[in-house]
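Example record

The entry below shows one chain as it appears in the dataset: sequence first, then structure tokens.
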Amino acid sequence: MKLITAVIRPEKCQAVKDALKDLGINGMTITHVYGRGRQGGVKFTTRAGEIIIDELEKTKIEIVVEDDSQVDSAIDAIVKAAQTGRPGDGRLMVTPVERFIRIRPEPPEKQE
């Protein structure tokens, strides 16, 4: 199993979710995060002076997939859906998952 973590532009979140759903991948964790990459943020010039915003809003999507064929197709789908061609489109990380445990309530005991 592999954990795919995608950090993307917030406006591309729905497109990525739809692309993953088309592959049959429904389970995911979505977190709104702030960060910066190579560009180091954004500079705005106003009458009052320069404003530098060095942490930009991003969306982090985490999914766990079963096998390597799903990893490649999920990566392709995320890249196609999230890409704008401008700096700051995002990053993908793939890490191994040693154990995956579902937390569910135990079924009630049968009474005889």
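Notes for this example: The CA atoms of residues 47 and 92 lie 38 Å apart. The longest strand covers residues 56-65.
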